Amino acid sequence: MVSTPSTPDIDASLTLLFRVGATTYGCALSEAREIIALRPMTRLPGSPRSVRGLINMRGTIVTVLDLGVRLDDEQTPLRDGSILLVRHHERVVGLVVSEVLDVRPLEDDGDASGAGAGPSRGIVRRVAATEDGAVVVLDLEMLISQVLLV
Questions:
Q1: Which top CATH class is 14-148?
Q2: Distance between start and end Cα atoms, the chain
Q3: Residue 121, pLDDT score
Q4: Which helix (H) or strand (E) holds 137?
Q5: Which of 14, 83, 85, 105 is deepest in the core (most CB within 10 A)?
Q6: Which tens digits make up the pLDDT trace of 75-130?
Q7: Global pTM?
Q8: Which of helix, strand or coil describes residue 139?
Q9: Which residues partner with 105 through β-bridges?
Q10: CB atoms within 10 A of CB 127
C-alpha cells in the first residue's frame, strides 16, 4: 500500500486538472494520492490495450492504465507524461496522463452523468468551464471499475 499523508483539510470543491492529448480533464483533488514520473513497467500478456502494465511503488504492485488509450482506443499509448496514483477500493491504481496542469475550483457547466458512448460511457461526471476552455471532469471510480472489473 502506498502511504500518503493524511489530508483532512483538502477542499472538496478543488479539482486536479490534467491533459491527455489535446483535451483537459479533471478529477476531485481528494481522489489523487500522488503524481510520479512515467517509468518503465511490466506488460501483462493478454491484458486490454488500456492496461499499460505493473510498477513497483515502494513495495506495492500498482496496475497502471493508459488514460489516453482508455478514452480513445485508436490513440497510441503515451510515451511521455506522468502517472497519477489514485486509490480504488483497497488498492492503488496508476493513470498515465500527458501532463498535470493545475488545482483549482471549477464552476459547473452542466451535469454530464452517464454521458458518452462506447468506452467512455458513464465516466464523465460533468463538464466545467475555465478561462482556457472546457474541462471534462471524470468519474475515476467508474473508469477504473470498467477496466479492472472490480
A1: mainly beta
A2: 17
A3: 57
A4: strand 133-138
A5: 83
A6: 888 888 999 999 988 889 999 999 999 999 987 655 554 444 444 558 999 999 88
A7: 0.82
A8: coil
A9: 14
A10: 17
Radius of gyration of the chain (CA): 15
One-letter amino acid identity for 126?
R
| CB 65 within 8 Å of CB 147 | yes
- For 140, the grid coordinates are 475515476
Rounded to an integer, what distance in angstroms lies between the CA atom of residue 102 and that of residue 117? 28
Question: What are the cell numbers at 44?
Answer: 501483462
Cα distance between residue 32 and residue 86, in whole Å: 5
Question: Under 8 Å CB-to-CB from 125, ≥6 apart: which residues?
Answer: 112, 113, 137, 138, 139
C-alpha cell at 115: 454521458
All three cell numbers of 95, joined, read 493513470
The distance of Cα 87 from the centroid of its chain, to the nearest Å, equals 11
pLDDT, tens digit, for every residue of 19-77?
A: 999 999 999 999 999 999 999 999 999 999 999 999 999 999 999 999 999 998 888 88
Domain boundaries, the chain: 14-148
